[in-house]
Amino acid sequence: MATTTLGIKLDEETRERLKALAEDKDCATHWLIKAAIVEYLDKEERAQRERREDMERWGRYMLTGESISHSAALKWFDALAKGCASHAHGSAS
Fold it and tell me: How buried is 65 (Cβ within 10 angstroms: 0-12 exposed, 13-18 middle, 19+ buried)?
């Protein structure tokens, strides 16, 4: 994978915190910055996917009116937790 350089401006306090953490972890500051960015992107992309899925589910509900009752969902979760996959799978409807 090709890499490019990206400059960021940090205030002195953040820079010192980054430097101290890198020293404590015995790693380079650029590695910490990269790891933090990757973690942030993963978290935000996951949140975006979940928001899209939620909107799709809401749209299906608005079109069909189909839903699962709270009690049916609890029964399904209980069966799943007890390892009764055959009873849990698809029985919450």
Answer: exposed
Report yes or no: 87 and 79 within 8 Å, Cβ to Cβ: yes
Sequence letter at residue 8: I
* Encoded tokens for 16: 């010192």
Tens-of-pLDDT digits for all 93 residues of the chain? 788 998 999 999 999 999 999 999 999 999 999 999 999 999 999 999 999 999 999 999 999 999 999 999 999 999 999 987 665 555 444
Domain assignment present for 31:
yes
Domain count, the chain: 1
In a domain, 93, yes or no: no
The C-alpha atoms of residue 21 and residue 23 are separated, in whole angstroms, by: 5
What tokens appear for 43 in the block?
């978290």
Query: Is residue 4 situated within a structural domain?
Result: no
